[in-house]
Amino acid sequence: MRDCLESGFMGVGEHKTPLTDEKRKMFQEHLENEPDCLVDNMSSFEKEASCREFGHLCPAFFVSEPFTETKELRRMTRSISNATIIRVARRDNNTCQMCGKILIDRDIEIDHIIPFSKGGHSDESNLRVTCLECNRGKSNKLDFLHE
Fold it and tell me: For the chain, what is the domain count?
């Protein structure tokens, strides 16, 4: 709130919007009435558990597995390097891991076993080769069996 009042903007990066008079008044009142709500020095734990988007202590940090909710892994993207795709295709022998169909290179789809949208990462251990039909049929389901 203090930063918003000083800069005159809310949000981060391309999502910055001008601070409205109503919000400015609300922030000023809150800071005057609740001075204890300001934290200038955060512990390393608080920095690690803080949500990068909204700044609060992220509840997902406390309920998720530690390897999926660390500051470094929250920055991971769903993009997969060509080298990783080649290693996964070789490891899986160009074979759909759901239906067993042998695929030519241009028909290979790379599937996140634990979907990216559900907290899965893009490391080789969470990737597998699938055909188009199996990958589209699975979508973002957690099921390991083809439905």
Answer: 2
Q: Is the pLDDT of residue 56 over 70?
A: no
Cβ proximity of 114 and 126 under 8 Å: yes
Residue 8 DSSP SS3: coil
CB atoms within 10 A of CB 110: 16
Answer yes or no: is pLDDT of 63 > 70. Answer: no
Instruction: Give CA–CA dist 88/90, Å, rounded.
Output: 5
Q: Which residues, in sequence order, are CB contacts of 58 under 8 Å at separation 6+?
A: 49, 50, 51, 69
Give the Cβ contact number of residue 108 at 10 Å: 20
Whether residues 12 and 67 fall in one domain: yes
Element housing 119 (H / E): none
Residue range(s) defining the domain that contains residue 87: 82-138
56 with 111, same domain: the answer is no
**CB-side exposure of 32: number of CA atoms within 13 Å?**
7
Q: Is residue 98 included in any domain, yes or no?
A: yes
Alpha-carbon distance of 92 to 26, in angstroms, equals: 57
What phi and psi, each to the nearest 5 degrees, are found at residue 27?
-65, -45
Q: What is the mean pLDDT of residues 122-126?
A: 87
